[in-house]
Amino acid sequence: MNFIEQIQLHAEQVFGDKAKAENWLNQPKSEFGGFTPLEHAHSEAGYLVAKEALERIRHGYAF
Q1: What's residue 61's pLDDT?
Q2: Predicted TM-score (pTM) of this structure
Q3: CA geometry: angle at 20 spanning 40 and 55, to 5°?
Q4: What is the distance between the terminal CA atoms of the chain, rounded to a whole angstrom?
Q5: How many CB atoms lie within 10 A of CB 57?
Q6: What is the rounded CA–CA span in Å between residue 38 and residue 4?
Q7: What are the residue boundaries of the structural domains of the chain, listed by start?
Q8: Residue 57 in 3-state DSSP?
């Protein structure tokens, strides 16, 4: 499984809904330098940043 597939799966687990996950993954975020989380997750470092953001959301720290 590549980083994109991993972040998509993780987002679906966090949001509990594929459509909500896709929406979050495809919206540009300032935290990602104006890129989408999905664009950012093409590298291991970017994937880890996106995963950390999802963990903050999971624990109630939405941004």
Answers
A1: 86
A2: 0.90
A3: 55
A4: 28
A5: 15
A6: 7
A7: 3-58
A8: helix
